[in-house]
Amino acid sequence: MLVINIRRWRLLLIILLILVAIVYLLQAKWFWKLFYPWPYQEEMVQLGVTHGVDPYLLAAIVRVESAFNPLARSDAGAVGLMQIMPETASWAARQMDLKGFHPDKLYQPEVNLSIGSWYLKNLLREFDGNMVVALAAYNAGRGNVSNWLETGKWKGTLEDLNNIPFPETRSYVKSVRRNYEIYLYLYDQKKETWRSLENLL
Fold first, then answer.
1. Percentage of residues in the chain with pLDDT exceeding 90?
2. Are 134 and 121 contacting, i.e. CB atoms less than 8 angstroms apart?
3. Which of 65, 87, 110, 126 is catalytic?
């Protein structure tokens, strides 16, 4: 009887230790960083300063767009980390006065991130700093988004997100926003440096 009780207590102790370990892991940022790594962090932070965009948002976009794969190419022809269309990249490169740009350079992380972050800032300027609208335009195109806003199909808010005509764009904005919140929580050590989530999204 004593042997059975000892075994039972050992089993309960093991279970308790496992539960404590699970609770610890679920609260440990280092654990979640294994699932949400941040390659090219230094480059994104620098470009955030250069172009005036939130680097945590860049991280979220790159994760959703390419899962940090610099060689990614979509069926539609979008290329690299931020999945930029070659035509859009060529236009942006002219606006940025990038000499010697060729679409093949979009596979280079530094080129792709530079053009992508500049383009995101360009969309933010066009849509008066509305992050939700800028993200929708990044996915669906500025022409489509402008049309939705002008015709009243979409009000340009998170609350009205389900009225976006393209299901892919609705899903995209939700996914980027969710990833943004995660990266901000896991990596932001100086929250006062960047605007709050409420102001950004």
1. 76
2. no
3. 65
End-to-end CA distance of the chain: 62
The tens digit of pLDDT for each residue in 53-110 reads: 999 999 999 999 999 999 999 999 999 999 999 999 999 999 999 999 999 999 999 9
Helix (H) and strand (E) counts in the chain: 10, 0
What pTM was estimated for this model as a whole?
0.82
| Close Cβ partners of 99 (under 8 Å, ≥ 6 residues apart) | none
3-state secondary structure 169-186: HHHHHHHHHHHHHHHHHH
Q: In 3D, which of 164, 85, 107 has the Cα closest to residue 132?
A: 164
Q: Over the stretch 140-180, which tens digit does the pLDDT of each residue have? A: 999 999 999 999 999 999 999 999 999 999 999 999 999 99
d(CA 157, CA 78): 26
* C-beta separation of 129 from 156 below 8 A: no
- Does residue 168 have an active-site annotation? no
DSSP letter string over 83-130? TB-HHHHHHHHHHHT-TT--GGGGGSHHHHHHHHHHHHHHHHHHTTT-
**Position 36: which residue type?**
Y
Name 150's Cβ contacts closer than 8 Å, sequence gap at least 6: none
